[in-house]
Amino acid sequence: MSGTENEEADAGAPQQSDLDYKVNLLFPGVVVRKDLVKAVKGNAIVPTYVLEYLLGQYAASDDEATIQAGIDTVRRILAEHYVHRSESELVKSTIRERGRHRVIDKVTVTLNEKADVYEAEFANLGIKGVIVDPPVIKAHPKLLVGGVWCICDIEYFHSDDQRVVPWILGSIKPIQLSKFDVDQYLESRRGFNTEEWIDLLMQSIGFNPETFSRRGKLLQLVRLIPFVERNYNLVELGPKGTGKSHIFSEFSPHGMLISGGEVTVPKLFVNNSNGRIGLVGYWDVVAFDEFAGKKKRTDKALVDIMKNYMANKSFSRGVETLGAEASMVFVGNTSHTVPFMLKNSDLFDELPDAYHDPAYLDRLHHYIPGWEVDIIRGEMFSEGYGFVVDYIAEVLKSMRSQDYSDRYQQYFTLSPDISTRDRDGIHKTFSGLMKILYPGGQAEKEEIEEILRLAIEGRKRVKDQILRIDSTMAEVKFRYSDQSDTWHSVATLEEQEYPAYYDQRASVAVEEPEPDEAVSPRSSGVAVAGSDDNPQPDAPIVTEPALFEGHREFQENQRGVSYETLLLPYLRGATEITIVDPYIRLPHQGRNLVDVLALLASAKDAADEIVVTLVTKAETGQYEQAHLLMLKDIQDSAAAAGIRFNVTWDETIHDRSIRADNGWTILLGRGLDIFQKGSGSQFDLAARRQEFRQVVAFGVTYIHEGAE
Fold first, then answer.
1. CB 330, CB 298: distance < 8 Å
2. pLDDT in tens, 435-493
3. pTM value?
4. How many CB atoms are closer than 10 A to CB 127?
5. β-sheet bridge partners, residue 660
6. Cβ–Cβ contacts within 10 Å for residue 381, how many?
7. DSSP states of 166-228 as a string?
8. What's the pLDDT score for residue 5?
9. Nearest to residue 253, comparing CAs of 452, 397, 414?
10. Is the pLDDT reported for residue 513 higher than 60?
């Protein structure tokens, strides 16, 4: 590394967080700083787990000097041994001249039946026919299916017999962890609380946990379930650019990502002409990329075999029935919004016709709502410490045989309405999340309920769409009871966002609700057609429903919420409003307050004035002056629009509320701070309209006490 590169690396070293310190303390030698992958990758086209395998050998430390030395070593190894296709002839010449040379390449082995020998092909080096000894195949059978990244010593010996391949395999070592201590893993897990552990897992898959909500993190971690749960069938459909296939191509040496168009019966299951087993016999996870596409051609025989395998974990080879444990993952892009799909078809609308079949869809255990996952941005990648991916991949693989599906039953009971297949889907998702988040098998009741609800929601999303396709299927109430025999229903997020379109039995298109109707708004007045000057007694009287009174909960990641629908209907007609919120300090909190004041100003008559009093806590210390200046700017701006804005200091307040002199009180658990951080792009619609933004989980209570 040059002096300039060293200086850049030192300057770019991120500040170690408390979590990073704990990770290095409890998992020494098996964690690595995640931004190092970009530092060493260069133009090497290799999966992340290959690079992290090398980084784990030389840079698994929190000592900066050791890290820099490790980066130098890994860069040197890649420079000397990684084979670029454009330089393959140079590497072959090096092997010839030296007689022996080490390479890093993807190796695929086939059986030459005529010669009765195994022969290897090196993808980047471009050589094939290299003899492989049978013990190597017995130790590493995946070499026969799909190819494996390996570190190999290649020798060269020319023979006058042109039938003899001059390349000789001196040694071969697949790039994956050879061993690990699962007991030490479980013991070290006890040193983390749930939030820390989730953040560590997020950093391990390369993401910065600070840029994700709690639900957003869990949706990312659901993608890991196929690696830890046998015969798990997962689907994720959503917009482009959300990283749907990343984990299945980069995360684990035990997963295989293939294009949906490349799937054939021989490749996936069995070649009946020679009896050779396909991918499902060798890989823990087989993921199908670009699976969506209505016009894609499909093999009906493949669909039938896949349906049988997904249901029964087996397939046929002639008269023989074979079992396999590979989980199946289907990822694809959607081209329409969720409400469009719900209004015009269903959430499986993008699938090829052969897969848009209730019998196939019913085999899916969980549907990740890909439309909730943010498009990947630069700041979403982690610079913190996470597990070396081949380490966590081996941990997950070791737990595939364990079953945690019953761990919720000491607290909760699923509804008897839930069918066996629905129950299996819920159980497998719950078991997978338990093994990922709570590998020791123990968790608090609230933690268990959180992942049980997510498991139920994912299976409900599948079943509800099947009911839209096949109305003969029986409707299911997805709910569970607790120890007090209280029943809790589970709804999908899109069911709450778009109730008018979600009902699978709706026979006609329903008009979209007006903005005020999103929170069951009901006005207190009566609108009568006609006017006093020109009455129309025969015209119908249109009465808007009364405003909703009571409590409402909003789920994390929900869209379609705005101050205009949440607050404004309850503040219309008020002349004095008191906002109690102890935290109007940061710039984004000030902007939230301005959004409310702007709504009030636009809704009132220009000649009217409204008095708004903010009761909040004073800022102290170095930010005190900035806080006062922000509130003064708000006051001046509001005054120009007919809003008399005042501030009252109260250091004792905690609860947030809005009280108006029209009789309404609104209790806001999180105050005005209900929206998640956006992308930061000035061209993002969510930066202009609140209803396009995702919210955090929050509740709101409306109380009417009569006008003052």
1. no
2. 999 999 999 999 999 999 999 999 999 999 999 999 888 889 999 999 999 999 999 99
3. 0.77
4. 20
5. 577
6. 16
7. SEEEEEEEESS-----HHHHHHHHTTS-HHHHHHHHHHHTTB-GGGS-HHHHHHHHHTTHHHH
8. 45
9. 397
10. no
Strand 657-660 relative to strand 233-238: parallel, antiparallel, unpaired? unpaired
Determine how many CB atoms are found less than 10 A away from the CB of residue 270: 22
Other C-beta atoms lying within 10 Å of the C-beta of residue 45: 11
Please report the pLDDT score of residue 20 as a whole number. Answer: 92
For 280-298, the pLDDT digits (tens) are: 988 999 999 988 888 788 8
Q: Packing angle between helix 389-398 and helix 48-58, nearest 10 degrees?
A: 110
Q: How many residues does the chain have?
A: 708
Structure confidence at residue 530 as a pLDDT band (50, 70, 90): very low
With b for 16 or more beta-carbon neighbours within 10 A and e for fewer, the 172-188 pattern comes to bebbbbeeeeeeebeeb
Residue 19 token pair:
């979590």
Here the tokens at position 470 are: 């096949």
**At residue 200, what is the residue type?**
L
Contact 466, 362 (CB under 8 A): yes
pLDDT tens digits along 588-644? 999 999 999 999 999 998 889 999 999 999 988 888 899 999 999 999 999 989 999
Longest dimension (CA), the chain: 111
**Which residues 6+ apart lie within 8 Å of 382 measured at CB?**
34, 35, 202, 203, 206, 207, 208, 209
Rounded CA separation 457/463 (Å) = 10
Q: Which conformational region is residue 154 in: left (phi greater than 0), alpha (psi within -120 to 50 degrees), or beta?
A: beta
Range 197-201, long-range pairs (CB < 8 A, 24+ positions): 197/437, 198/437, 199/19, 200/19, 200/23, 200/386, 200/387, 201/386, 201/392, 201/436, 201/437
**The pair of three-digit structure tokens given for residue 356, joined into one six-digit string:** 């848009």
| DSSP structure class, residue 75 | H
CA 508, CA 664: separation in Å to the nearest integer? 37
CA quadruple 394, 246, 106, 313: dihedral sign: positive
With b for 16 or more beta-carbon neighbours within 10 A and e for fewer, the 421-435 pattern comes to bbbbbbbbbbbbbbb
- Where does the pLDDT of residue 9 fall: very low under 50, low under 70, confident under 90, or very high at 90 and above? very low
The DSSP string of 325-390 is --EEEEEEE--S-HHHHHHHS-TTTTS-GGG--HHHHTT--EEEEGGGSPPP-GGGB--SEEE-HH
Q: What is the spatial distance between Cα 189 and Cα 164, in angstroms, rounded to a whole number?
A: 54
DSSP state string for 608-663: --EEEEEEEPPP-GGGHHHHHHHHHHHHHHHHTTTEEEEEEE-TT--S-EEEETTS
Task: Report the candidate in 694, 696, 649, 645 with the shortest Cα–Cα distance to residue 668.
Answer: 696
For 33, residues 6+ apart whose C-beta sits below 8 A from its C-beta are 14, 59, 62, 67, 383, 384, 385
Q: Counting beta carbons within 10 angstroms of the beta carbon of residue 409, is it exposed (0 to 12), middle (13 to 18) or buried (19 or more)?
A: exposed
Cβ neighbors of 237 (< 8 A, separation 6 or more) are: 292, 331, 332, 333, 334, 347, 348, 350, 351, 367, 370
Burial of 253 (0-12, 13-18, 19+ CB in 10 A): buried
Question: Could you tell me where the DSSP H helices lie in 562-623?
Answer: 563-566, 568-571, 587-603
Token readout for 477 is 């109430």
- Which residue type sits at 105? D
Q: Which helix (H) or strand (E) holds 58?
A: helix 48-58
